[in-house]
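As a warm-up, study this chain.
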Amino acid sequence: MSYRGSVNSLAVILGLSALVFTGCFAATGPSLGLWSVPIPVSPYQQKSLEDKFHVHERYGRVPILGPITSGGPVQALDPPSDDEVWWALERARPIQGNFPFLYEIQRNNVRIVKEKIADYIDPPRVVPLIGPAQLHHAHYKCTVYFSERKIVGWPIPHTIHDEDVVEVLYIDHNHFHMVGNVDFGEGSTHY
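Now compare it with the structure written out below.
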C-alpha cells in the first residue's frame, strides 16, 4: 500500500472514531430517537404562547381570600395595575404583527387614569370546589391617553401622527371570600 493510501485510510479511521466517541452516535442511555432532533419554532408563535401564559398566570385566575371580618374593610384593595390595563388595551386594539419598514404602529406618552365605578359583595353561597364563599366584585373604568404614530412604508411612504388618542377600558376584579370557619378545627363542618 502506498503512503498516500495509508494516510487516507488513517484519516477515515480517525474521522469515524471521532463520530463514535464524541457522543453524537452510539450514546449510551435512553434516546428519544427522531424526537431528539430540535424543531424550529417561529418567534411569533413563541411570543404569542409566552403572552398567553403571562396573561393566564397573572390575570386569568380568581383568588380565594380569607373571610371578611366584622369592622374590616369591605372595599376592594387592589385596583388594576398599569400592566393589566396595557394587556387589556393590547387585546382591544392590537399593534403586534407590525411589518417593519412596511407598516408600524407606535404608542408614546401613555397616561392611565383608573376610576372605581362599583364595589359590592354577593350574598354567601356554596361554590363547587371552594365551599361556602362570597364573590366580591370591583369594576373599574380605565381611561388610557396616548399619542399614536403610524408609519407606512409602501406603496407611498408617509407617517400619520395622532396626538390625542383616548381609549376607555372596563376591567372587572372579582375574588372570593371564604365564609364561616375556614380552619376546619373542632366543631366545624366539612363541605
